[in-house]
Write a structure and sequence with these properties.
Layout lengths: L11 H13 L6 H8 L1 H4 L14 H15 L4 H37 L10 E2 L12 E2 L1 H15 L3 H37 L1
Antiparallel strand pairs: 1-2
Helix pairs in contact: 4-5, 5-6, 5-7
Length: 196
């Protein structure tokens, strides 16, 4: 029976050699190397799962992160923080759009399951006597279901309104962070121009 490396006992000499080798590695020394290694967990997906709910695709977040990180190419710690915030807020905005669609779908399915009569073959309409000449006079079932879903949500716990409020707040944060990042870069460029 052969022993594998994982369950073999190491000798004192091997342990000492490992400790000595470990002392040789001091990690990145330059500022650039330190910045690069500080993003390794995000770069290689170490934290992606923290920003993605159960049932959603972690790889989609990681691709989003990588694309935006590569676009902004932060050059110092402050820029890196701004870029991370931008990515987080941008991801939230995308997620909120999906969540809104899911909330509508859930309300529609709840209405469908409620056994309330809804004739899918007929369109609801209003007499053109009450309307301007070019006004729309009928409501198709898809639009009607969206309206019912919105109305049911308003009568219930108002998730859609809360989501819209959250979305607006996240967008403001995204915009402020973007402004700060651009201002920081502008100042840095001005400083570099003065030193030349």
């Amino acid at each position: 029976m052969s022993t594998t490396h994982s369950n073999a006992r190491r000798t004192a000499k091997q342990i000492l050699a490992s400790q000595q080798n470990g002392r040789l590695g001091k990690g990145p020394q330059s500022d650039l190397g330190k910045r690069r290694s500080s993003a390794n967990a995000l770069k290689h997906g170490g934290y992606a799962e923290r920003f993605v709910p159960v049932g959603q695709n972690v790889d989609a977040y990681q691709e989003y992160f990588d694309r935006h990180y590569a676009y902004w190419k932060p050059t110092d710690a402050l820029e890196e923080e701004f870029v991370h915030q931008l990515i987080r807020y941008g991801w939230k905005l995308q997620f909120n759009a999906i969540l809104e669609s899911s909330l509508y779908s859930n309300e529609i399915l709840n209405y469908y399951r409620s056994n309330l009569s809804l004739d899918y073959r007929k369109k609801r309409n209003i007499s053109k006597v009450y309307l301007a000449d070019s006004a729309k006079s009928e409501l198709n079932k898809s639009d009607e279901l969206m309206a019912i879903a919105f109305q049911q949500d308003l009568n219930g716990n108002q998730c859609l309104l809360a989501l819209d409020d959250m979305d607006s707040r996240v967008f403001v944060k995204f915009q402020k962070t973007l402004d700060k990042l651009l201002e920081h870069r502008r100042r840095k460029d001005e400083l570099q121009q003065k030193t030349l």
